[in-house]
Design goal:
Elements: H1 8-21, H2 33-36, E1 53-59, E2 65-71, H3 73-76, E3 81-85, H4 87-90, E4 97-99, E5 105-107, E6 113-114, E7 120-126, H5 129-138, E8 140-145, E9 172-173, E10 176-177, E11 183-190, H6 192-200, E12 204-215, E13 224-230, E14 235-240, H7 245-256, E15 263-266, H8 282-294, E16 298-301, H9 304-310, E17 314-325, E18 331-341, E19 371-378, H10 395-413, H11 417-424, E20 433-434, E21 440-441, H12 446-457, H13 459-474, E22 480-490, E23 502-503, E24 506-507, E25 510-516, E26 522-526, H14 535-547, E27 554-558, H15 575-602, E28 609-611, E29 615-618, E30 621-627, H16 628-637, E31 648-653, E32 662-672, E33 678-688, H17 695-714, E34 719-720, E35 726-727, E36 746-749, H18 767-785, H19 798-807
Parallel strand pairs: 1-16, 14-15, 18-19, 26-27, 33-36
Antiparallel strand pairs: 1-7, 2-6, 2-8, 3-7, 4-5, 9-10, 11-19, 12-17, 13-14, 13-16, 17-18, 20-21, 22-32, 23-24, 25-26, 25-31, 28-29, 29-30, 32-33, 34-35
The structure holds cytidine-5'-diphosphate (CDP).
Cytidine-5'-diphosphate binds at residues 533-535, 538, 570, 573-576, 689-694, 697-698, 701, 761-765.
Length: 810
Amino acid sequence: MNEITLTPAEIEDKQGRTDKLQGMGCRRKRVEDVRFTQGRGAFVDDMKLPGMLYGDFVRSSYAHARIVSIDTSKALAVPGVVAVLTAADLAPLKLHWMPTLAGDVQMVLADGKVLFQNQEIAFVVANDRYVAADAAELVEVEYAELPPLIDPFRALDADAPVLREDLAGKTSGAHGPRRHHNHVFEWAIGDKEATDLAFANAEVTIKELLSYHRVHPSPLETCQSVASFDKIKGELTLWGTFQAPHVVRTVAAILSGIPEHKIHVIAPDIGGGFGNKVGVYPGYVCSIVASIVTGKPVKWVEDRIENLSTTSFARDYHMTTELAATRDGRVTGLRVHVLADHGAFDACADPSKWPAGFFNIVTGSYDIPTAHCVVDGVYTNKAPGGVAYRCSFRVTEAAYCIERAMDVLAQKLGMDPAALRIRNFIRREQFPYQSALGWEYDSGDYHVAMQQAMEKIGYAGLRAEQRAKQAAFRRGETRELMGIGVSFFTEIVGAGPSKNCDILGIAMFESCEIRIHPTGSAITRMGTKSQGQGHETTYAQIIATEIGIPADMIMVEEGNTDTAPYGLGTYGSRSVPVAGAAIATAARKIKAKAQMIAAYLMEVHHDDVEFDIDRFRVKGLPEKFKTMKEIAWAAYNAPPPGLEPGLEAVSYYDPPNMTFPFGAYFCVMDIDVDTGVAKTRRFYALDDCGTRINPLIIEGQVHGGLTEAFAIAMGQEIAYDEIGNVKGASFMDFFLPTAVETPRWETDFTVTPSPHHPIGAKGVGESPNVGGVPAFSNAVNDAFAFLGSTHIQMPHDAWRLWTAARKLGI
Ligand code: CDP
């Protein structure tokens, strides 16, 4: 029947029923906030078990030292102390080292030497958190200092100190040959010969070292765990701040030898993850061992300094970037060499076959015919990690690399940075687009997005204002520089297709179980784990639209490995691209069965019924229908003969490809050259994440991601002094912006659905960080370009900008 024939009353009826569902596209308020705003969340530290003990670490004062002796006697004498574990205690269990997600190994407790400041040396277990902390102070560690290696550019020198004695003589690692004792891997991709030729023939080239400094995800809730081993049943229950609970269960089974079905991993409410809570930390292992040894539950909760200085850092990529181009601004080649500082152990949380994550998205939004990229990973005396801090596996580094390079090229060509980008965009008709470094971009309409963004921000007017300000600066009438930062990024999210993505050999699918109850409400269980992204709200919206049950009648449960189907967890904006698709496919299985039941109830053939928002109706007879509520009841009480009762489905979804969200960001900044203070006057962010499930949550995700981008670009840093003392390990030194510093965000969108995703959705959570950092940095550099500067390294805090102005003779 043609919809045009609908009467106004019928249209109103349809709208009313659609509104009631609160399905996809609805600005549904976050259901989880009801408990969070009333202090009713249940976090790991809320766990209180009878007889529970508390663990605390003794940590290294030095970045690189041999451990001569550890004397635990004074600590053990403290009343309330139950045990002090060292590597010697863990060694017989083979738990003094553990595998990392990147194919390396990492010390759980210092084994013979320490390799970074604050490294875990001993684990003190006591009946009180403060007794454990006091006793940890009494553990006496004698060190023999070794020369520290802090500068990654010195790591491969012939005379660089040997850090990893355990790797002596190993000429290859998890990712191929190692050519030096501090070399982790070399990863090369692209066509070297063709790229070299493009550079040889280029009319214009640029070359710049673009460093993306070391930062930390710094979630408000630090990493923590509670382990409870039941000796009688031989079962371990582990509560923890886990972004990937099933992966933790599998790792715990491999490490401990406890059969996987006897390990129960529970991730309760989590207060932010941003990649920090993907990997396995010594604290988890020590709490498990301590529980097995003492027979009591053991809680480990790290403090802020421990979180910032020892758990996974992010970035630390030093990218020597070259572009080849024609004089009129056509980019003809890209060459990048990355020096990647991995710290003491390679504990990157990337899919196994991707030692540099998806850095090969570095060709960005541009149709660059040829590219070649080499990444060298090195060990230094710093904390391990390399996690995807609000980013899909090194994608933010790649976006910063290409987006800064495009600005440097525009400056050399004397071209407007927006015009240079438009000149090189992949065109709509080129999708699906094969990039020079191996990706197939699914969909995009970059020209439309850029045009919309430039109009909304009033780009031409801003450039005119900038020219007038520069003239006034020259005349000495102002001491302020105006910068306009342009960033047009393409993300790659949704790891990932089993053909190229796995963790520890497990393909990176996602799963969903939906059970419709007889009265028409439902529960869905997922292998992902929200850390604040609002999954309970948005997942229910997908089901509501797919099968016509109101979102308020659908409970979403995550984080319990006993009840949820196996999933690979939440990071890198993979929830909607992978789990969102698993939800849609599970819902469609239910819908197919519901159609059979509806047809049986209405005594027609199932081809003669059609879905209509919240019901199945007979084609051509809209007044003859069965609602999903009626169908659910019938599924349990009167299923068609031959069809088993019940209405539930499980779906495992292996995505055929990644999704490629994109966006156009503009930042307008005023910088006082006498103080170095930069004020963000405007920040406009246009995002395209395909089908939008919940616009309200998307805006929240963009606000949060932009705030983190602002922090990273403008001040956040984990720095080290020359002997390896970590600076920036507390919120006195590490910039975490509050509402006072945070700029006001203007958000906008276009919608280009993903052609291979069941609901056309792409991820969004990481986009604002990926696109935001280059927009800020380009604004700063655009302002300083007027003084003849080409590139100022991040972070752009007032001291560094003031110093830069001084160096430029201001
Ligand atoms: O994996 P993670 O949850 O961090 O990232 P995501 O898949 O980008 O989703 C973040 C939040 O935004 C979730 O609550 C999604 O449901 C929501 N979202 C949306 O409403 N529409 C999209 N197209 C993408 C994400």
